[in-house]
């Protein structure tokens, strides 16, 4: 045996012994790759009934706590399709996701849970086997806009804009497919979102629609006859006339300066692509104007792309320019949903539907 070959064999043997020697740590496992195939193939690990329980490890393999997880992305898309919204699909294990899991589990007659169990995952998948991540080709219209360079922080300055449009194609595409902008970028690390013909990976959900809808075409089936808003759990649930739960959405509900109302209200009507009118009597923090002013329509309008008017003056259920903050921050007194959830509710809610506020 040559000296060089013997040395290689010795190194290989030592490496093998090191990996198998008792008391020595195995190499760190790499975190799951985040791409279309990984998300579509993701599934909970099957539990071995005969396996002995092992000590919990505080660290999640080598994954950072804030990294999007392929299985979480998949579950969030499946929840969205089932109309149990996790808010912005971001691949992270947050309150909105846990609330949607729990609501879906209860609707399926399963035990209360805030984690994705194999049984719950099976129920989610039962609705269909279509991939949860699909491809989308960016079009000329997508990159044409119109876009605005920047959305001012102050409402008085927003009123000077001709439209409250998206600021760039990435923001627009993320919202169209119910995703956080970070997840869209993570799934498409080298994509040129401002170039027509670029093929990207997106969540396979009904894309956010835009534009007005004629009153004669509303409400669409299944019809929502009752809405329940829970101030404590920060969510909105929609029911049909027989009490069946049709949809669940996370929500931002009221604030200290303008708390959400109590008791019951009625839905008076729906406005798509609404303008927003500020009344000085609201006395919002940071707004100094003593005169009324209006902000033009658009997805970055303070009330988003839809306004569901309630019988309580100045209160409504509406969209938001900040979908990733829904359920995590306060609103100006109203009930704020993501734009896609608000539009979904607006398409199905009946005029005169009861809106009940559940106290904390």
TrEMBL record:
This is Murein L,D-transpeptidase. InterPro entries: LD-transpeptidase, LD_TPept_cat_dom, PGBD-like_sf, Transpep_catalytic_dom. It comes from Methylobacterium durans. GO terms for cellular component: extracellular region. One of its GO terms (biological process) is regulation of cell shape. The keyword Signal applies. Residues 1-25 form the signal peptide. SUPFAM superfamilies: L,D-transpeptidase catalytic domain-like (SSF141523), PGBD-like (SSF47090).
């Amino acid at each position: 045996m040559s000296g060089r070959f013997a040395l290689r064999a010795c190194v290989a043997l030592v490496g093998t012994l090191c990996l198998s020697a008792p008391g020595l740590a195995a190499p760190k496992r790499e975190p799951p790759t985040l791409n279309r195939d990984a998300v579509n193939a993701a599934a909970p690990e099957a539990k071995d009934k005969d396996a002995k329980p092992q000590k919990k490890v505080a660290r999640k393999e080598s994954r950072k706590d804030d990294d999007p997880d392929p299985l979480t992305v998949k579950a969030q898309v499946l929840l969205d399709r089932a109309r149990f919204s996790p808010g912005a699909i971001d691949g992270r294990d947050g309150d909105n996701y846990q609330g949607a899991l729990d609501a879906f589990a209860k609707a399926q007659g399963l035990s209360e849970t805030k984690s994705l169990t194999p049984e719950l995952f099976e129920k989610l998948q039962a609705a269909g086997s279509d991939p949860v991540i699909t491809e989308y080709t960016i079009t000329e219209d997508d990159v044409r806009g119109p876009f605005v360079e920047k959305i001012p922080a102050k409402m008085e300055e927003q009123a000077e804009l001709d439209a409250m449009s998206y600021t760039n194609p990435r923001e627009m595409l993320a919202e169209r497919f119910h995703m956080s902008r970070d997840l869209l970028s993570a799934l498409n690390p080298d994509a040129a979102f401002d170039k027509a013909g670029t093929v990207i990976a997106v969540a396979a959900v009904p894309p956010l629609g835009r534009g007005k809808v004629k009153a004669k075409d509303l409400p669409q089936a299944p019809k929502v006859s009752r809405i329940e808003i829970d101030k404590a759990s920060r969510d909105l649930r929609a029911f049909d006339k027989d009490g069946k739960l049709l949809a669940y959405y996370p929500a931002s509900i009221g604030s200290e300066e303008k708390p959400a109302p109590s008791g019951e209200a009625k839905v008076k009507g729906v406005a798509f692509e609404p303008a927003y009118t500020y009344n000085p009597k609201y006395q919002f923090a940071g707004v100094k104007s003593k005169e009324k002013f209006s902000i033009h329509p658009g997805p970055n309008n303070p009330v988003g792309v839809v306004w569901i008017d309630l019988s309580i003056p100045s209160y409504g259920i509406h969209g938001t320019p900040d979908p990733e903050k829904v359920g995590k921050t306060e609103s100006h007194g109203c009930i704020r949903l993501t734009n896609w959830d608000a539009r979904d509710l607006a398409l199905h809610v009946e005029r005169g539907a009861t809106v009940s506020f559940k106290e904390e």
